[in-house]
């Protein structure tokens, strides 16, 4: 486990992929550690000229959830939610995921069992990822599952049990509070109050309806997870097999119906089987299989339930009549009781299969150091949903008649089943020659030539786009050559030559070259000292290409899109029309990505290591629909041709620090930290200048980060942010477009001074954009006489969120709330009385519609800087001499808490920094578990 | 060394091998996409050519109530109507409050891409014009079933393109004339906005070319062809385009009235010679009071109905809802909204039947700017205490008023708009003798009740029961009645007074006026008043008034007709009705009823993004591309 006294440094461990291979790790120096490079080859740190980060099984297994994506959060410098080194393009930026050497175009990281993973590496700079070509240009994530090792047979059993509940479960107002504020909003808008004083009295004295939906229907979830791993082998055969099962249940309080079970349950089985066979002295074969089966049973409204629980006021009646009709209130067509229990059920089965087989020939008989490898990879995903639809009648209590009366047009319907499926298929063939030889001890030569051909037939699951129903074919040739002198100086050249069907003939192929080099100063004889034990300086530069293939609806951009279908009229043939949609541009070409990286690896006393990089990506020729193409030319905005006209500069720093030692007293200490900073900026968005139109800011993108949001700045000149009377609004002399401010609405700055508050006054809202500028993580592991303690933190800063459309921050959000959602904060909303009495006012006057205050503006900007204690684990391993008697090599018990504490500065209560709606939840879990090794 | 040589040879052969794989795979990269067509394919078969041409019909405006959520903005804005959607935020209220700007004008609202409503004209019409430009460029070499078909489609494309251009000029004024197919590499430098009258003259020329076509029909002969272009439509476009070209808003101080008269005279004669005539016979006296009413309440497309020879182009749209829902009376159970309700100004415009005289002084209809009372024309015989008797028959065809009978299907009721409960800041309206109100009372906020004291009746058919969607009056894009009055206006402006009066009188005879009260005018000034007055009445609720009031003025003048509009508050004093005019709008007379009467609203602003882009691409600056008054 993680706290072995002789554990190799986290992030840097590469000696083998096994979790228990650390026995001889001490003998491997930092410079001789093997790093994972493209196509499954390993290279020593000394000779590696690129930039990468990795995390090994020990770290991954500290995460007790089911998702690999969560397990690697905060552990890889430069990795953030599927994106490496931030966004360099507004088009797709996801990293290429490679599982055991095979690209996985439709894999979701949440669906891979962390227990089975031996190592994860991200390839970050041009030198590291160039061989993967256009798909890897934005970064590559290599996942290697565990493999068997020589001369051992290990059986590992683990069991985990967790309770999960939301990190943030805010106080909501009771019926009385909600009704009072609803009345206040109505009165503010000049409408009649909804609740009479006698109704309010009933709410206040507890005789009225007061349904706390969260208390009534939300439950802690229970997760159980079991894995059995068997690994081992001898000289000829090595194997690893994992069987895993997990089950997560019980999100909501449900009632069993005789027709179906609406309770949430997610079951997952995973099988991983990796086999390596040495056939003879020059031929090795391997076969890897990874199967995941996930079955989900859930109420058809499952995805909607948290939302309903926060947007249905407490005064809505709950319950059902004997005849099965469900009670609700006017305006609430989906009563929660009905939504959970009677809205039907979805049963999903998703099967992921990834398999590859290959042969590795040693061609020493041709020339020493030459080998040839061929791999056939296949993966498929099948997702089948059986949906049982069901409906129920609704009733509303009629005060006048004193009876429940039918409401709406829904009636109880018999359960009827339908099914839908999604199938993805991917196949790839790789062939490669590898050459490695050292001449005269000082001259090392490496060469690699790699050919890939791939065929992808996607469905619309991940790309949600008809374009991907068509097969995607790719071919590419890549090569690498490296020369090293005395293990100190290395120069490397990489290239990739590939074709894409995205472009018209003549634009389809491109060649991307990369040069890189490194100097291992610490290998110089004059350098040797005990303090600075390692120093390597690296640099790389490459001109990579990117075909934007993953952007929505972006295939065949060179084509004029004509579609037959609607748009015709009767009278001209059969009423069909051939409509010219998006305009083609035959000159559409690749996005180019000029990537630089400068870094160093530094070690002190063999215990403390720093790996740092400064990187810089100039993304040019970004495909965008230029605004500079006027509609007057007959092309509507959505149909404009794409041109290679955008330009983004993205730069940043990655930093990884590790410290690893065992004190003489036997206390093992292992500290790891990483940090990524990135900053992207549109240099050219082929965008219109609004300078002539008297806009305070002439550009909306150029000069700003990708995803920059705009809004009004609140004017605080009267000390209160609000217009405090109609007279004050009139006296401002301003005109307002759209919603007119009422007394109590936010006061916005007329930035361009034209007397009209309109788009021209909008300003870039403080750091409201897509990617966090800083993300960081740190962990501390201590190990003492069988006890282990692990602490893991993650954090983010340098970004804000605009929350005027976040239910719970805004009391009214179009399309989500019916009659507003009121939080305790809203009790301090502006009213004329509060203002007159000088009471604190922290929120604009409530409204029944999206008031002028709810336009994008700086009031709703909340910083999302946070630090989260993500993992706290305390474990105890029984002494070996005791467990040996029962044949075990290890027996460890532990307790663990995940997402225990979060320190943040969110402006609005009730929000986790990672959720933008009060009903989107991040979960905290408490967990006990057991590991047994034989 | 030998070994190295082998090594090199192997490497080279491996690379070559891979290279060969490559070349053979290159074809894999040239996929046949998913059912898309190439440019060549579009014009390669007769079907595709015509299907592509069909896409140019996609944005023919729907009209009637297919503006944003059923409001007809043009009628709402003009002095003939008021929208009962005014209780809603943002929509018509943005217009009434004068809150439109270059990024947010209600005619340009964002969601137009859906094509469900009218609006977004700038992008829609230019898109259609591009399709037609492409058609006209490719038709000479495109595949067609026959040469006559090729010729017919070419002529049709010209008329349709002229139609779109005409719509644009009416809204936006000066425009560039684009006949090329613009692409991404088009150089816009130096592209000019042509003065509106030049664009309109270009439209006229295009339609005249179509009139020479041997294959383009005068009318359509089958309902299956209902949206196709005809020579009749070409004539109507010529008539309107030339009239607009000569009008003050568009003529840029050129005197083009003789030109307009010539063109109008020519097409008027051609239309009459080719079988178009006014609908002047009442077929169903049980249901309708006069031919005028029956004409609007019936559904006919050009040529599709033997007894309708007046419609030049009728809309084939079935809107899925009917007038009784959208411009309904609360007595209809299916009434969703009263919709666009008539103003007192429109009601006042109907003459007295027996005398043929307007009820007010045409030169000076109201005693004050706010229309609080009228300058009664004593010769008319109008009785202010009994205002709804003895009026022009078209009044009864167009308007439900206090006391009018509804006899549609199962309903046999009387409309009562009186309201004894009504009160507002105005001092005249505090009558509270008895608190009661009629079944269709004036109401300030309810969507189904009138704001003005009147409901719309034009296009309503008695044959359809409320709730049925069937055969109601459809929109008439062009009808011969309009051509009469277009010609009459040109005749007046070129001092052909008698000719003008003759045309007006023909229209009035059809309406039901006796020849004994025919209009005569002492001079051009009086004749102009008479013709304009006649247009207001005859063409009510046909989207003419909006454009008439705009084109008759210049772009720096406020639209005075629309500034203050009124309704009629009727209260019951015992058995007697008391009539009080009251101002419409939120300000209740303190401030204009419609701030959209400001001068800049004569033209619609060019969407900001466009004026800016074009400003920089053409080198003329954003102001050049924006309409006066809009920033």
Show unreliable segments of chain B. Answer: 5-25, 425-430
Helix content of chain B: 25-40%
Largest interface, C-beta within 8 A = A-B, 80 and 86 residues
Distance between the amino and carboxyl termini of chain B:
80 Å
* Rg over CA atoms of chain B: 28 Å
Q: What order do the helices and strands come in, and which of them pair?
A:
The complex is a heterodimer of chains A (934) and B (631).
Chain A: E1 34-36, E2 42-44, E3 52-56, H1 57-60, H2 68-71, E4 79-80, E5 83-84, E6 96-99, E7 102-103, E8 117-123, H3 126-129, E9 140-145, E10 152-166, H4 175-188, H5 197-205, H6 213-217, E11 221-233, E12 237-249, E13 265-280, E14 283-299, H7 305-311, E15 326-328, H8 336-341, E16 344-362, E17 370-391, E18 394-398, E19 403-407, E20 413-439, E21 443-457, H9 460-463, E22 472-485, E23 489-500, E24 509-520, E25 532-546, E26 562-565, E27 570-571, E28 573-574, E29 577-580, E30 591-604, E31 608-625, E32 642-662, E33 668-684, E34 710-711, H10 726-732, E35 735-736, E36 756-757, E37 763-764, E38 774-784, E39 787-797, E40 800-802, H11 832-837, E41 861-863, E42 866-877, H12 880-883, E43 890-904, E44 923-933
Parallel strand pairs in A: 6-9, 15-18, 35-36
Antiparallel strand pairs in A: 1-2, 3-8, 4-5, 6-7, 8-9, 10-11, 10-44, 11-12, 12-13, 13-14, 14-16, 16-17, 17-20, 18-19, 20-21, 21-22, 22-23, 23-24, 24-25, 25-30, 26-29, 27-28, 30-31, 31-32, 32-33, 33-38, 34-37, 38-39, 39-42, 40-41, 42-43, 43-44
Chain B: H1 2-25, H2 39-42, H3 46-54, H4 73-77, E1 81-83, H5 92-96, H6 121-138, H7 147-172, H8 196-211, H9 231-246, H10 248-251, H11 257-273, H12 291-297, E2 311-314, H13 323-326, E3 340-342, H14 344-349, H15 393-398, E4 399-400, E5 405-406, E6 413-414, E7 455-456, E8 476-479, H16 480-493, H17 497-511, H18 524-538, H19 544-551, H20 560-563, E9 566-573, E10 576-583, H21 608-618
Antiparallel strand pairs in B: 1-3, 2-8, 4-7, 5-6, 9-10
Helix pairs in contact in B: 6-7, 7-8, 7-9, 8-9, 9-11, 9-16, 11-16, 16-17, 16-18, 17-18
């Amino acid at each position: 486990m993680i706290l072995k006294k002789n554990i190799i440094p986290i992030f840097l461990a590469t000696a083998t992929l096994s979790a228990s291979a650390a026995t001889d790790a001490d003998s491997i120096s930092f410079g001789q550690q093997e790093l994972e490079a493209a196509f499954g080859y390993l290279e020593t740190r000394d000779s590696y000229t690129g930039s990468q980060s990795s995390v090994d099984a020990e770290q991954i297994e500290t995460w007790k959830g089911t998702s690999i994506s969560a397990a690697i959060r905060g552990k890889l410098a430069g990795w953030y939610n599927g994106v490496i080194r931030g966004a360099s393009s507004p088009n797709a930026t996801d990293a290429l995921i490679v599982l055991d050497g095979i690209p996985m175009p439709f894999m979701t990281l949440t669906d891979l069992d962390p227990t089975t993973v031996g190592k994860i590496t991200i390839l970050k700079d041009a030198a590291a990822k160039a061989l993967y070509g256009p798909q890897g240009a934005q970064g590559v994530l290599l996942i290697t599952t565990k493999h068997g090792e020589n001369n051992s047979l290990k059986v590992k059993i683990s069991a985990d049990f967790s309770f999960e509940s939301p990190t943030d479960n805010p106080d909501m107002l009771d019926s009385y509070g909600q009704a009072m504020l609803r009345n206040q909003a109505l009165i503010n808008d000049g409408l009649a109050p909804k609740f009479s004083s006698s109704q309010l009295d009933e709410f206040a004295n507890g005789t009225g309806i007061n349904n706390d939906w969260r208390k009534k229907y939300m439950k802690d979830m229970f997760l159980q997870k079991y894995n059995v791993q068997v690994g081992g082998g001898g000289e000829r055969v090595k194997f690893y097999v994992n069987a895993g099962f997990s089950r997560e249940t019980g999100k909501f309080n449900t009632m069993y119906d005789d027709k179906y079970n609406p309770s949430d349950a997610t079951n997952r089985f995973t099988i991983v089987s990796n086999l390596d066979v040495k056939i003879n002295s020059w031929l090795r074969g391997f076969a890897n299989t990874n199967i995941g089966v996930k079955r989900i049973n859930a109420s058809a409204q499952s995805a909607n339930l948290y939302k309903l629980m926060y947007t249905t006021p407490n005064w809505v009646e709950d319950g059902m009549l004997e005849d099965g009709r469900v009670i609700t209130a006017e305006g609430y067509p989906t009563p929660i009781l009905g939504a959970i229990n009677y809205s039907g059920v979805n049963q999903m089965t998703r099967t992921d299969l990834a398999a590859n087989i290959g042969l590795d020939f040693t061609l020493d008989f041709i020339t020493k150091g030459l080998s040839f490898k061929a791999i056939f990879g296949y993966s498929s995903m099948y997702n089948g949903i059986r949906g049982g639809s069901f409906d129920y009648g609704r009733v509303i209590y009629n005060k006048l008649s004193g009876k429940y009366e039918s409401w709406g047009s829904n009636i109880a319907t018999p359960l009827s089943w339908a099914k839908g499926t999604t199938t993805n298929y991917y196949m790839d063939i790789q062939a490669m020659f590898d050459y490695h030889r050292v001449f005269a001890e000082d001259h090392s030569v490496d060469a690699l030539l790699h050919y890939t051909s791939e065929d992808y037939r996607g469905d619309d699951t991940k790309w949600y786009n008809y374009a991907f129903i068509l097969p995607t074919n790719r071919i590419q040739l890549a090569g690498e050559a490296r020369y090293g002198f005395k293990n100190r100086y290395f120069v490397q050249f990489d290239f990739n030559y590939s074709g894409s069907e995205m472009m018209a003939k003549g634009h389809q192929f491109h060649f991307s070259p990369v040069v890189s080099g490194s100097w291992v100063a610490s290998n110089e004889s004059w350098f040797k000292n005990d303090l600075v034990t390692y120093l390597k300086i690296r640099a790389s530069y490459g001109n990579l290409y990117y075909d934007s293939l993953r952007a929505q609806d972006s295939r065949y951009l060179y084509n004029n899109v004509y579609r037959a279908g609607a748009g015709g009229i009767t009278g001209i043939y059969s009423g069909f029309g051939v409509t010219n949609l998006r305009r083609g541009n035959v000159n559409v070409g690749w996005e180019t990505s000029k990537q630089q990286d400068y870094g160093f690896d530094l070690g002190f006393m063999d215990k403390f290591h720093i790996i740092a990089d400064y990187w810089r990506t100039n993304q040019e020729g970004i495909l965008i629909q230029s605004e500079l193409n006027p509609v007057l030319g007959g092309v509507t905005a959505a149909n404009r041709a794409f041109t290679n006209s955008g330009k983004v500069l993205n730069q940043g720093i990655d930093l990884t620090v590790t410290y690893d030692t065992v004190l003489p007293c036997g206390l093992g200490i292992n500290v790891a930290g990483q940090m990524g900073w990135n900053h992207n900026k549109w240099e050219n968005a082929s965008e219109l200048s609004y300078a002539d139109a008297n806009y305070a800011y002439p550009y909306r993108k150029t000069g700003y980060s990708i995803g920059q949001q705009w809004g009004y700045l609140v004017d605080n000149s009267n000390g209160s942010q609000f217009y405090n009377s109609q007279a004050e609004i009139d006296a401002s002399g301003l005109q307002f477009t759209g919603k007119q401010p009422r007394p109590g609405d936010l006061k916005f700055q007329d930035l361009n001074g034209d007397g009209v508050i309109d788009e021209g006054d909008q300003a870039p809202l403080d750091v409201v954009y897509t990617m966090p500028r800083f993300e960081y993580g740190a962990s501390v592991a201590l190990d003492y006489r069988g006890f282990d303690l692990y602490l893991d933190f993650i954090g983010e800063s340098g970004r804000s969120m605009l929350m005027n459309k976040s239910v719970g921050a805004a009391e009214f959000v179009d399309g989500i709330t019916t009659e507003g959602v009121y939080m305790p904060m809203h009790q301090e909303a502006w009213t004329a009385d509060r203002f007159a009495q000088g009471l604190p006012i922290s929120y604009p006057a409530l409204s029944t519609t999206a008031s002028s205050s709810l336009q994008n503006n700086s009031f709703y900007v909340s910083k999302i800087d946070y630090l989260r204690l993500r993992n706290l684990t305390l474990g105890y391993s029984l002494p070996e001499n005791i467990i040996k008697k029962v044949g075990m090599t290890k027996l460890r018990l532990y307790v663990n808490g995940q997402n225990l504490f979060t320190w943040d500065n969110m402006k609005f209560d009730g929000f986790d920094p990672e959720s933008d709606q009060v009903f989107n939840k991040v979960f905290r879990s408490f967990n006990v578990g057991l590991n047994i090794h034989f | 060394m030998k070994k190295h040589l082998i090594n090199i040879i192997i490497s080279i052969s491996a690379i070559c091998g891979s290279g060969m794989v490559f070349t053979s795979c290159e074809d894999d990269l040239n996929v046949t996409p998913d059912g898309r067509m190439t440019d060549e394919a579009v014009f390669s078969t007769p079907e595709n050519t015509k299907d592509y041409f069909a896409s140019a019909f996609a944005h023919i405006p729907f009209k009637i109530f297919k503006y944003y959520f059923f409001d007809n903005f043009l009628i709402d804005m003009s002095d003939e109507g008021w929208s009962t959607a005014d209780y809603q935020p943002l929509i018509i209220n943005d217009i009434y409050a004068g809150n439109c700007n270059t990024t947010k004008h209600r005619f340009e609202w964002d969601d137009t891409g859906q094509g469900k409503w009218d609006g977004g004209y700038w992008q829609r019409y230019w898109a259609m014009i591009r399709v037609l430009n492409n058609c006209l460029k490719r038709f000479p070499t495109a595949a067609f079933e026959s040469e006559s078909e090729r010729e017919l489609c070419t002529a049709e494309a010209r008329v349709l393109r002229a139609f779109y251009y005409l719509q644009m000029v009416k809204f936006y004024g000066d425009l560039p004339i684009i006949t090329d197919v613009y692409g991404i590499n088009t150089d816009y430098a130096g592209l000019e906005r042509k003065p509106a009258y030049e664009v309109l003259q270009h439209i006229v020329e295009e339609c005249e070319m179509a009139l020479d076509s041997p294959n383009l029909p005068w009318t359509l002969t089958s309902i299956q062809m209902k949206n196709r272009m005809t020579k009749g439509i070409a004539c109507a476009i010529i008539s309107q385009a030339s009239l607009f070209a000569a009008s003050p808003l568009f003529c840029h101080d050129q005197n083009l009235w003789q030109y307009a008269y010539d063109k109008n005279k020519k097409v008027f004669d051609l239309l009459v010679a080719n079988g178009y005539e006014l609908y002047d016979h009442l077929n169903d006296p049980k249901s309708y009071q006069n031919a005028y009413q029956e004409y609007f309440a019936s559904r006919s497309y050009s040529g599709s109905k033997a007894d309708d020879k007046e419609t030049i182009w009728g809309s084939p749209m079935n809107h899925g809802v009917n007038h009784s829902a959208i411009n309904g009376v609360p007595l209809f159970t299916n009434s969703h909204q009263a919709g666009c309700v008539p103003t007192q100004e429109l009601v006042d415009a109907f003459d007295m039947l027996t005398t043929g005289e307007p009820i007010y002084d045409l030169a000076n209809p109201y005693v004050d700017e706010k229309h609080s009372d009228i300058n009664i024309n004593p010769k008319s015989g109008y009785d202010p205490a009994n205002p709804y008797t003895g009026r022009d028959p078209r009044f009864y065809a167009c308007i439900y008023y206090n006391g009018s009978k509804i006899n549609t299907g199962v309903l046999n009721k009387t409309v009562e708009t009186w309201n004894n409960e009504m009160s507002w800041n105005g001092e005249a309206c505090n009558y509270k003798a008895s608190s009661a109100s009629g079944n269709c009372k004036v109401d300030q906020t309810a969507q189904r009740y009138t704001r003005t004291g009147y409901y719309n009746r034009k296009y309503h058919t008695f044959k359809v029961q409320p709730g049925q969607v069937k055969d109601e009056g459809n929109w008439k894009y062009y009808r011969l009645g309009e051509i009469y009055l277009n010609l009459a206006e040109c005749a007046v402006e070129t001092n052909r007074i008698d000719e003008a009066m003759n045309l007006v009188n023909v229209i009035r005879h059809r309406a039901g006026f006796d020849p004994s009260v025919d209009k005569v005018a002492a001079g051009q000034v009086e004749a102009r008043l008479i013709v304009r007055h006649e247009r207001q009445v005859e063409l009510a609720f046909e989207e003419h008034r909006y454009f008439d009031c705009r084109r008759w003025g210049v772009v720096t003048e406020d639209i005075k007709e629309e500034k203050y509009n009124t309704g009629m508050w009727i209260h019951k004093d015992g058995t007697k009705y008391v009539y009080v005019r009251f101002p419409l709008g939120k300000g209740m007379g303190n401030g204009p009823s419609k701030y959209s009467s400001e001068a800049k609203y004569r033209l619609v602003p060019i969407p900001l993004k466009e004026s800016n882009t074009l400003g920089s691409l053409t080198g003329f600056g954003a102001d050049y591309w924006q309409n006066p008054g809009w920033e």
